[in-house]
Specification:
This protein has nine helices and nine strands. With 203 residues, the chain is an alpha/beta fold. Strand 5 and strand 6 form a beta hairpin. Bound molecules: guanosine-5'-monophosphate (5GP). Guanosine-5'-monophosphate binds next to strand 5, strand 6 and helix 4.
Length: 203
């Protein structure tokens, strides 16, 4: 299929909705999609590997990345900073490959300002009760942290309207299938292709 630039896909939604799980499952599907690894100042959780799950940075290192314009977007989330390294994303798209960012809502809205042609997908929990269950089930957060994550989650769900697509994460494989369909459809959008077929029409 003809294409010049890759798609910038932003998968966002409240913490605990399962963005990481859905992205992980999408990877298993052997799609052509590349994954952007974020930088963060939060401590690694058990089993997380530097450079695979995140680039783990000190506050000073993160500040340095902001000052040098190395981040496409960044946000403070609960008590830590999270950001998307710019270079990998820009190079991947320029090489004609699709890239997915798994980020929280403030960051997604920043990306929308610089990349309005991106594909913005909001991953939705089936209910707030289910969302709380999932965060508690992770067993990595204290009660206070869970409460603040739930407060942020409600504010985030309010911003659903700013996205192109809403995918309910009722079941991981079903959510993955919906995302794959969205990516296929977006890659066939007339607006992204019409200039590539000009010569054919003019022949
Ligand atoms: P966690 O600490 O659970 O890994 O992530 C907390 C939140 O930060 C999640 O909603 C996650 O999607 C988001 N996040 C991860 N990486 C980035 C990033 O690069 N930028 C932004 N804005 N949010 C991110």
């Amino acid at each position: 299929m003809k294409r010049d630039k890759g798609l910038l896909i932003v998968l966002s939604g409240p913490s605990g909705v399962g963005k990481g799980t859905v992205c992980g499952a999408l990877r298993q599907h052997d799609t052509h999609i590349r994954y952007s690894v974020s930088a963060t100042t939060r401590q690694p959780r058990k089993g997380e590997i530097d450079g695979v799950n995140y680039f783990f940075k000190s506050k000073e290192e993160f500040q340095h990345m902001i000052e040098n314009d190395q981040l496409l977007e960044w946000a403070q989330y609960v008590d830590n900073y999270y950001g998307t390294p710019r270079k990998y994303v820009e190079e991947t798209i320029a090489a004609g490959r699709d890239v997915i960012l798994e980020i929280e809502v403030q960051g997604a809205l920043q990306v929308k300002k610089t990349f309005p042609e991106g594909v913005f997908i909001f991953l939705m929990p089936p209910s707030l009760k289910e969302l709380r269950n999932r965060i508690e089930g992770r067993g990595t957060e204290t009660k206070d942290l869970i409460d603040s994550r739930m407060t942020v989650a409600k504010e985030e769900i309010d911003l659903m309207d700013k996205y192109d697509y809403v995918v309910e994460n009722d079941e991981v494989e079903a959510a993955v299938e919906r995302i794959k369909s969205i990516v296929t459809a977006e890659n066939c959008k007339k607006e992204r292709l019409i200039h590539l077929y000009k010569e054919l029409v003019e022949e």
